[in-house]
Amino acid sequence: MLNTTAREQMIEQQVRAWDVLDARVLELLRKVPREHFVPEAQRAFAFADIEVRLPHGQHMLRPNVVGRLLQALELTGRERVLEVGAGSGFVTACLAGTAAQVQSLEVIPELASLARENLASLGIRNAQVTAGDGLQPDTRTRYGAIAVTGSMPVYESALQAQLEIGGRLFVVVGEGPAMDARLVRRTSEDAWTTTSLFETVIDPLINAPRPPGFSF
To answer: Which numeric CATH code is attached to 2-200?
Structure first.
């Protein structure tokens, strides 16, 4: 009962309050047990408006950012989705709940194993987590949607080449104190559009290129 109340407060006070109004997304956040993906030592913060700590200095995305990510991708249940950065598997599970298939790449092997265990224990079979670097994309494979759960200090366009025509890419670009969450949509074989969605701050992808430093 306590989890149910805390989850509903999270949805109403954090997620919906941040302009996540898609009923399918809100229902998905009710169904996927966020607490299941939170390390036991952090379980008290499962529904809090914070980035919950994970091993190796990583963090789960805040619930409102997850809501905005899911809403922006507008998944229909037919897409094959690529996730860059599985973490403990929470966003992976949310994507799996509204897509046909999810392929997730996690650069830290321990987190990849943790995500696989978490997903398997919930019986989620349409998501596969692989230890690997999502910034080294396989351009032979295309996806209906791509979710990047770590920021890119400098935007790298290689991932957008993996979108199907009509496919959507969610990515956060820049450095603190304000990063730009963007939706990139492929409109033709050689054209993309970019929409700025909101400002936030999240962990950078481990191997993401950084801007060159100033020299004097």
So the answer is: 3.40.50.150
